[in-house]
Fold Acyl-coenzyme A oxidase.
Amino acid sequence: MGVNRIDRCGPQNSSDYFTVQYQKQTINSFESLIRIQDFVHQHAALARCQPQTHWRMWKEGYINLERRWDRVFPVCCSMANRQMRLMNEARARASFDPRELTSIIFGGPEAVKACEAAFTRIEQVLRTSDLDKLPDTYGDLDRTGQFLDGLHFGKAMVAEKLKHGHSVFEPITPRYWLANASPFGLHVVMFIPALKLLAAPEQLAYWLPLAESYKIIGAYCQTELGHGSFIRGLQTTATFDPPNDEFIIHSPTTSSTKYWPAGLGYSASHAIVMACLIIENRNHGVHPFIVQLRSLEDYTPLPGIELGDIGLKAGYNSVDNGYAVFTHVRIPRKHLLARHAQVAPDGTYTADSSRPKLVYGTMLFARGQLVANGYLQLAQAATIALRYSVVREQGTLPFTSIPEVAELPLLAFRAQQQRLLTLMSRAFALMFAARSAGSAYAALPDQGHTEYRSLELAHATLAGLKAYATQTVADGVEDARKCCGGHGYLAMSGLPDLVATTTVLATLEGENCVMYQQTARFLVKCVHGGADIDATVAYLQDSADPELLRPAVDILDSGEQLRIFRHRAMRLVKEYAQAFSASQTRDGLNPAQAWNTHMMGFISAAHAHVEYTVLQSFVEAVHQLDTGPTRLVLQRLCGLFALGCIDGPHGLGFFDDGHLRATHLRRAHVAVGELLDNLVPDAVALTDAWNFSDASLASALGCWDGNVYERMMRWTRQVPLNAAVAKTGNVFRPGFEEFIRPILKGKL
Amino acid sequence: MGVNRIDRCGPQNSSDYFTVQYQKQTINSFESLIRIQDFVHQHAALARCQPQTHWRMWKEGYINLERRWDRVFPVCCSMANRQMRLMNEARARASFDPRELTSIIFGGPEAVKACEAAFTRIEQVLRTSDLDKLPDTYGDLDRTGQFLDGLHFGKAMVAEKLKHGHSVFEPITPRYWLANASPFGLHVVMFIPALKLLAAPEQLAYWLPLAESYKIIGAYCQTELGHGSFIRGLQTTATFDPPNDEFIIHSPTTSSTKYWPAGLGYSASHAIVMACLIIENRNHGVHPFIVQLRSLEDYTPLPGIELGDIGLKAGYNSVDNGYAVFTHVRIPRKHLLARHAQVAPDGTYTADSSRPKLVYGTMLFARGQLVANGYLQLAQAATIALRYSVVREQGTLPFTSIPEVAELPLLAFRAQQQRLLTLMSRAFALMFAARSAGSAYAALPDQGHTEYRSLELAHATLAGLKAYATQTVADGVEDARKCCGGHGYLAMSGLPDLVATTTVLATLEGENCVMYQQTARFLVKCVHGGADIDATVAYLQDSADPELLRPAVDILDSGEQLRIFRHRAMRLVKEYAQAFSASQTRDGLNPAQAWNTHMMGFISAAHAHVEYTVLQSFVEAVHQLDTGPTRLVLQRLCGLFALGCIDGPHGLGFFDDGHLRATHLRRAHVAVGELLDNLVPDAVALTDAWNFSDASLASALGCWDGNVYERMMRWTRQVPLNAAVAKTGNVFRPGFEEFIRPILKGKL
């Protein structure tokens, strides 16, 4: 029999809990499971086990067996409580095998396995796999503690990467936060890509090995106190000093203080500093320089460099976003990254013609990372909220006669179904869109200036998609939080962290309103463009009469949906392109004024274009799958996504020209209802498909086993404030003596 | 001359700063100002002064004089920097006197004065008025520190209230957060109102004086780990024990743990506990009981009561939202609050027929408080973002030739104008709506069961308005934060706190989807209702053909706007009321199923009704003002509000039935542009009108003087992490030794 040891465990009520350990290889058959079940039943207690096969459920005694994790996993209970039973029942309703979908999401079974192994190893290093323990960050970490935590998981990620040679933890952390959350994250996501984009070959040969082996740790130092992603406005100067063959890096004003770069405060040894190149009083514009910030021996800041942390933020307090004031700091001439512009010893300046655009390349790469990974956090939030919604019972429907019906799980309510399954559909939509867009920019860091046209297209595509994706993620995560009611506001739900880490993505690497306008500007160009226009925007030159489409509209067919989305995008782009022209010719505005007048219109036009391309990616991805239950569930999600856009906050553009009418909307409402009826049984399986480990979710509400309330109370009792007060007779002494007692005694 | 002392001050760069003190009475004329100006010029340094007259601006040397605060106020600078000059110039463009609007907002000049005095006093007590000092809460408070901070300002509020006999700090804190942020806040907002609603006269005579003099501190103990605002689902029991004439309060399950009540952890001495009344095994439903939690002498929890804090939340960590587990806790029979239900010594139970509804009264009162005060936080966020937008220069418009034009202030961009001024318009809209609704529920705590009909109306009105107002506030605050770019993500911007404290309002005291449905249910009733229907919903019985309205639509007239909003509301309510009937008669669904099918429709119908009433309140309030510049600016804001709803995320309902068309939308876009052109010069004056003290905003971005960058750097250098690291050679030793050095050395 597989079980070879049992241990008591659990910090509270320990008499209720047991650990069942066993020899891994024996748990590989139905017979082994039965043996474990018997064993567990016999002890009538919670068991922990890690079988190699799928979970099952028997009669009254439950045993949940999780095959995903190559380690002991706490999912077994012979006396499952009500919430765990509800979760099991919901999971059992699935119409498809979530592992098939996992394989689609992560790129095949081997990739899934490698990813699981990486998470398992890092969770062991970080000691986050004990679900009975309140995660440290939900306790009482002050800022220093949070920063140390960031250094801790940052180092673990570096070690994992170097030892096992994979890139799982390059773009994300072990909690699926973006790399920004680690003090060393942007070393990989911005510093190294910037080197590849901006360094001349001999410079790259010197710096890249140092960076890739972490002998130096880099920050990407662009934004200033008074300047963000508008690179041309930067004020830091790099003045060439020919006698010494050096540049002098200097912060001439308060507002030129470098401000925000991740890791700049206390973690980075070097930085790529964007600064205005000054030669003989002439400003040649912003160029990249490598500046050593700290001694590699003891990390003391080098002379003339003031470094510090910028203080508490809404999130990402695990990283030392920092500031730097440079006071006449001298660096060698060869520290100008010289792939696209060079300064000779005599001060002669030479540059590629496309140089001014290429300095934006690093931001472009970073935007690609946001798009390529941000949806994972939306999927996490949807996972937490959907799982909570099957075990949380709250209220009844109106017109229910009270004594006769019990409270309903949240997922029984149509509003909850629609909100959360729409979020799930958006996570998939963004994933497929990111994949389609990926080919446009994945190779960018290795492209030279010969590819300027494709850079322009990649820039335009990615700008709008970045805005669309980050806003969809942030809004969705916040909506998921709201769907969890009060408990979603608790740190231990994991949702406040998800909100805090995603809400800023609308700002990072280019503010979304600005991003949409960059796409819009490209689209307007395409309306008037020539024959060599890219296929993705060719539809803008179609001249079909939109009115002709109207009688044929079937809002439920994915092909028709695509035509509807395309019609909206084409109409809005053309409408505002025309209005833009008219404001100049008719009203005599200059182009900048005319653009400002129609700015909101351009933003909505770009949004419509991006949404069309997102739907297109989703529809195409579904079409490429083999017929079967997994394809069917994705097809339903795709329909829900499309109809959700039509009846959503940006839906007006489908209707105001009469292309769609109330009858279509009514059909959409009925269709959404049917889709939801079909998708609700798959809700838990959809969360399982994303394959998030419980430790990566770090959520008392979202764990795989559904044991929400007991876990919440176990974690609550571990809150450090409670532990401290318990030692002083359960009275919070400092507060009572100084504040409460004087109030009670009227001594104010 | 008025100046009688100067002091150096400021924690950094102290040589640059001076304090000018003076005898208050001398600064009351233009001559005094000139004298101060001369004095300041003479010293060429920053001055702090508090004159009794309005601010002025002279030539190159600026002196900003703020008449609002009865204390020294740091707004003067003879060497104004660029940001301060931009702020002064923007302020000088106003078309109206902001003090007139202040008077409208706060209810007359006397009320303004009293409010200012209260803020000045409490800011002195809390030592928050020094703008050179990083506010403590943006430094490094751990949870204990945050809780102590809450007790600190909570006690100050109690003292201020008892000493000066006003209610300024009953619904809000000195930062305009809602009372929930103070450990003693709900004592006034829920405990005392619940007493008034639920206690029998002799009980009230006993408990109310104790509560009002703070001899006891109360919590309102309703929600449980497994149950929220659905009161009927609560599981805590209160079992009558006739021999001892006692009730036994007990938590029978994990999920019945009382969870969330503010102050319950460590601050409250007593609680009103909602529990199921059990007499001889019969459950009479949920009733209110007064339970003493802690000894009034030493605050030790009484036997059988486990109390604790629920841990970190997304916000409100200054308050000890707590949990309580009751184990057979005995209380006297007379502790059942017996206004609406009584238990005789022999166990005989008597109750008013309307009792089951009346237990909701306390939540109703709390909802009223959210509606009546929540918009202040939206106005704060708009204030911070608008002020920042006039001094922050960032980028140029597309098609601007670069060398020729400098960067533009954010408020030059149409998108920024539209987003932020729309938020400002919404703050006013919610303010006027709250006033109109106020009469419907203000007197509720004193109403008895004789007023059941008006309670139903108040409940229906307030439920939807609560949902509308809290969502508008939370979305708006988040949008304002995004409008501030990266800096809006910094704690010291004040915006993350505003986001965290408002986002939860959608959940508190009734989840918004549920709230809208309660309004919808009432509206559906009204469609079929009789002659005694309330005036506010009478329009639902109009039978005018909506199509007849169409040719007459003038989207720019406020009367027409009201008709457009009313049409949408009427159409949607009737459409879903019909669909609801049809689902029953045609599809054979029971009412609960039919409701669930059309739930999203009912939510949108209720939203449309509420939005109509909000616009109605705004339009009526503007009409009642005297003609003049102040009325004109409010009229413009009202227009912006209305057009923003039409072209906003819920605008589809105006268009899908063809009532409005693309031509209307185009007219609206032009009109919005004109309104914005007129409102932008008033932007800073609109922020001044709200009269928020700098200390209450606690924002490095939103201060009155516009000195953003210098203040940010001053505050950043005070970040405790930086101060600590400065002592160890500017190296973060623990992080370097344990994490960074091993990485650099390849020792992983």
Q: What stands out?
A: Chain B touches chain A through 154 residues (CB under 8 Å). The longest helix of chain B spans residues 452-483. Residues 1-80 of chain B form one domain.
